Automatic annotation (TrEMBL):
Protein name: GTPase Der
Binding site for GTP 1: 9-16, 56-60, 119-122
InterPro entries: AAA+_ATPase, G_ENGA, GTP-bd, GTPase_Der, KH_dom-like, KH_dom-like_a/b, P-loop_NTPase, Small_GTP-bd
Keyword set, alphabetical order: GTP-binding, Hydrolase, Nucleotide-binding, Repeat, Ribosome biogenesis
GO BP term, example: ribosome biogenesis
Domain (EngA-type G) ranges: 3-167, 202-377
One GO molecular-function entry: hydrolase activity
HAMAP family reported in the protein's UniProt record: GTPase_Der
Length: 493
């Protein structure tokens, strides 16, 4: 998905009808009665060759108290802040109402990019309403009929250049991962950790279950109430990035929606409630897995941490709400033991305790993030690797399945971000997974690479006899030569 598009407007202007047409199925409830949609609904939209995330919103009502319409309005305003593009719908048959002008002013101030569309514009009866829409000062309105599918080509023409722009932006912001090393870099093994700059800040994703305190944590880092928080679970609905200076280090932090258990992250990565969180993990260099101190290491926490490891990102585990914990030392000891037991693939990853509400432990969190980033970029000289490999093999030789001895001959580091190693060996397909884990754990301890994902690949290199096959080849050539001589003799006769 290259960008997100929020459909906003007064109640009953056809937002949900357009949403259903863009996603290609009836996801949103549609009725002639206004105010049917009360919450944000996301879907994967396709218009021609453009794919994007579309957000259906509640109808904007000019209320500012604590009533339900006012709360719905605030939620819609949040969608306006989150979305890359806002599609402002007006009713071409009804014409402009005072609320349309109020909301146009809100969008002009808050939205990143606004597209104006006059819906229900089929037939001559809508001409006056379409012309009236020019008065909003939001550019030329697109003439749409969401119910009949008219005007989709015009909407495509407007979105196409914006789509290209957002795809370029996404490519620029994506971090370099699986960075290949040259032979010279592998031999030297010099650790060169990229220094974050304002143009290329360190990218951090904060992920976790709903109500773990992700938005509160980022507000504490910012020093202001930038993100909406509250006791209710699931307030954040979209991945929001915030760029800031964190203790002198330029960073971009992604606040993500809580990943719920029923979303089945492992099997269905594109579930609507977690898809932006997945994308945030892919755009991050360091992933902070935020746990609730009261209920840490739930099944969903483990799935989230495992997802970050499989994506090859540096991982830091932060335990939030530590200020309300009574027996801190005993709980911390138990947490470390549990962490080693339930997440062996992240053995040694930093585990820090924080309180997003009070701000305690944030300095330790920054230190852990920078340490994890440095390890993620670590390089090990080839000479050291091969000396270490010899010691590991001498201490615990690889097995000989079916009597075939496996020889580990040579090792080098091929990639960083995360560290990736290649071992040249005989019969790589017969080397058991347990022996690979033995080598990975040894790499972590010997070269100080705790917690970071390590990729270890076995590549075949058999014993090559330079004379193997030459005898058969020479015999074949001699036979062919003798045959040609016999043919010549037969011809002379």
């Amino acid at each position: 998905m290259s960008f997100s598009l929020a459909i906003v407007g007064r109640p009953n202007v056809g937002k949900s009808t357009l949403f259903n047409r863009l996603v290609g199925r009836r996801l949103a409830l549609v009725d002639d009665q206004p105010g049917v949609t009360r919450d944000l609904r996301e879907g994967e939209a396709r218009l021609g060759d453009i794919r994007f995330t579309v957000i259906d919103t509640a109808g904007l009502e000019n209320e500012t108290d604590d009533s339900l319409p006012a709360r719905m309005r605030r939620l819609t305003e949040r969608a306006v802040d989150m979305a890359d593009i806002c599609l402002f719908l007006v009713d071409a048959r009804t014409g402009l109402l005072p609320d349309d002008r109020v909301f146009a002013e809100i969008l002009r101030k808050r939205a990143k990019h606004v597209i104006l569309a006059a819906n229900k514009a089929e037939g001559n009866a809508a001409d006056a309403g379409v012309l009236e829409a020019y008065e909003l000062g939001l550019g030329e309105p697109i003439r749409l009929s969401a119910e009949h599918g008219e005007g989709m080509n015009e909407l495509y023409s407007v979105l196409l250049p914006l789509s290209d722009e957002y795809e370029e932006r996404a490519a620029e912001e994506a971090p370099a991962v699986e960075v290949s090393l040259t032979e010279e870099e592998a031999e030297a093994g010099e650790t060169q950790v990229p220094v974050p700059t304002r143009e290329k800040p360190l990218q951090i994703a904060v992920v976790g279950r709903p109500n773990a305190g992700k938005s509160t944590l980022i507000n504490a880092l910012l020093g202001e109430e930038r993100l909406l928080t509250g006791p209710e679970a699931g307030i954040t609905r979209d991945a929001i990035s915030v760029t800031m200076d964190w203790g002198g280090v330029p960073v971009r932090v992604f606040d993500t929606a809580g990943m719920r258990k029923r979303a089945k992250v492992q099997e269905k990565l594109e579930k609507l409630s977690v898809s932006d969180g997945i994308r945030a993990v892919k755009f991050a260099e360091v992933v902070v897995v935020l746990l609730d101190a009261a209920i840490p290491f739930e099944t969903q926490d483990l799935k989230i941490a495992d997802l970050a490891e499989r994506e090859g990102r540096a991982v830091v585990v932060a335990v939030n709400k530590w200020d309300i914990e009574d027996q801190k030392q005993e709980k911390l000891r138990w947490l470390r033991e549990q962490f080693e037991h339930v997440l062996p693939q992240l053995r040694g990853a930093p585990l820090v305790t924080v309180s997003a509400r009070t701000g305690r432990g944030l300095d330790k969190l920054q230190e852990a993030v920078l340490q994890a980033h440095a390890v993620w970029n670590r390089r090990v000289p080839t000479a050291q690797l091969n000396r270490w490999l010899s010691q590991m093999v001498a201490h615990h030789p690889p097995p000989a399945p079916q009597g075939k001895r496996i020889k580990l001959r040579y090792m080098t580091q091929a990639k960083t971000r995360p560290p990736g190693f290649v071992v040249m060996c005989s019969h790589p397909d017969k080397l058991p997974e347990s022996y690979s884990r033995y080598l990975v754990n040894g790499l972590r301890e010997a070269f100080d690479m705790p917690g970071t994902p390590i990729r270890l690949h076995m590549r075949g290199q058999s014993d090559r006899n330079p004379f193997k096959g030459r005898r058969q080849k020479n015999a074949g050539a001699l036979k062919k030569h003798l045959g040609s001589l016999q043919g010549k003799k037969g011809g002379e006769r």
